[in-house]
Design brief:
By secondary structure, this protein is mainly beta. It has one helix and eight strands; from the N terminus they run αββββββββ. The chain has a single domain, classed as Lipocalin. Mean pLDDT is 81; it is low at 1-23.
Length: 134
């Protein structure tokens, strides 16, 4: 009779530890959408501390792909990220499957952006390459 309560107690103590071990250190997302005549795909990794890093692939109409390594921070649903060239993104996670924001180019031009957001996506290591690969 005493075995069952002890087993239940141990299960209650060990279960959160086992579940916590399965949680990833970083959350991953895939953002996709279009920008004028181009399409983009951005793999992003979010740390528990609010750091964001990722790689954006911008496929131009002519088939050429420009690659941007970005880094930034997230506070609640607000996100800020930039590329070493001086381009900056400020946006908001508006729904579980949507992101909206503005890209401020280094020349001062601002472009509104909206995209589809997929959470918990398995990404390749190069999708969240360190910003040093800029």
């Amino acid at each position: 009779m005493l075995i069952i309560p002890v087993f239940a107690l141990l299960l209650g103590i060990l279960a959160p530890t086992a579940a916590g071990a399965q949680n990833p250190v970083e959350a991953t997302e895939l953002w996709t959408g279009s920008l004028y005549t181009s399409t983009y795909r951005a793999g992003l990794c979010f740390s528990p501390q609010g750091a964001v890093r990722g790689v954006l692939h911008l496929r131009l109409k002519n088939g050429k792909v420009d690659v941007y390594h970005i880094a930034g921070v997230i506070h609640g649903n607000e996100i800020e990220a930039s590329h070493s060239s001086g381009h900056k993104f400020t946006g908001e996670l508006v729904a579980p499957d949507r992101v909206e924001g503005v890209i401020a180019l280094k020349n001062g031009m601002k472009i509104e952006l909206s995209g589809r957001r997929e959470r918990g996506v398995l990404l390749a290591p190069e999708d969240c390459a360190p910003p040093g690969g800029q």
